[in-house]
Amino acid sequence: MPRPTTPRVRALHVILPWLVAATAVTGAAAAATTTPAPPHAATALFAGGCFWSMEKSFEDVPGVLTAVSGYSGGTVANPSYEEVCSGTTGHYETVRVEYDPAKISYDQLLDIYWHNTDPTDPTGQFCDHGKQYQPVVFVADERQRRAAEASKEALERSHVLKRPVVTRILPAGPFYPAEDYHQDFFKKEPERYEAYRIGCGRDRVMTALWGKDAHRGSVHK
Max alpha carbon distance in the chain (Å)? Predict the structure, then answer.
C-alpha cells in the first residue's frame, strides 16, 4: 500500500466507504472477464501506476473501445483492492485497453502509454510507491513483444528522458477487473480525482519529464 501520507490514501480513506455503499460493491474483486471481445478488437495491457490515471489516459481516444481498470501480473485469482495494496498478491494496477486496429495501432497505444507515465521510476509512479504501481507493458504475443521492445529502444535512443527507461516488458497473464467504484473514477468523482492528482504532483512531474509532449495522444489531459 502507498505510504499513509500519500494523497491517494487520504482520499480513499474518506471516500472509499461512501463509494462502496453507493455502488453496492463487496470486498471481493470482480472475476476475470471471459466475455469475448468483438471480432475486430485487439487487447493491450498497461501498468503505469494509479489505474485511475492510466484509464483516463486511454479513455475516449479514437479507436479505443474500452479502458478497464484492474489487476494483473500476480499469483492470486480475483484479488481485491485491499489485497493488492497489501503487496502480498504480486499484482500491478493495470488497465486493459480494447481497441480497433483499423483505427489505432498498438504502436500508437505505446506512444500514449509512454507519454502518460514516468518510465524512469523503478519504485512506482509519482507519489504512489510499491510493486503494484511499477510501470509494466504486458505483451500477449511475439508481435506485441517486438513492438514494445522496439518502442522502448527508440525512446531510449531519443535521449528525451534524462534517466534510463526502467519500464519492464513482461508476458501477459490473467487480468481481473477492479471493483466497480474504481471504474471511470475520474468521470464519476472529478473533484476527488483532481484532488488526488494535484496532491500527487503528477502533472508537475509529467511536464518536467516530457515538456509539451506530456500526455501526448490522450483526450483527457
Answer: 49
Asked if residue 35 is part of any domain, the answer here is no
99 assigned to some structural domain: yes
Task: Tell me what pLDDT residue 51 has.
Answer: 98
DSSP 131-150: GGGS-EEEESSHHHHHHHHH
Question: For this structure, is 200 an active site residue?
Answer: no
Q: Are strands 92-99 and 42-47 parallel, antiparallel or unpaired?
A: antiparallel
- Catalytic-role residue among 50, 85, 127, 200: 50
CATH number at residue 12: 3.30.1060.10
- Summarize pLDDT for 50-70 with one digit per residue, the tens: 999 999 999 999 999 999 999
CA atoms of 203 and 139, how far apart (whole Å): 27
Beta bridge partners of 115: none
Dihedral, 43, 135, 55, 77 alpha carbons, nearest 10: 70
Range of the domain at 122: 7-26+41-199
Does residue 187 contact residue 220 with C-beta atoms inside 8 Å? no
Q: Is residue 217 part of a domain?
A: no
Q: What is the pLDDT of residues 135-168, one digit of tens each?
A: 999 999 999 999 999 999 999 999 999 999 999 9
Cβ count near 98 (within 10 Å): 16
The tens digit of pLDDT for each residue in 10-22 reads 445 444 444 444 4
DSSP element (H, E) containing 48: none
* Amino acid letter, residue 163: R
Number of domains in the chain: 1
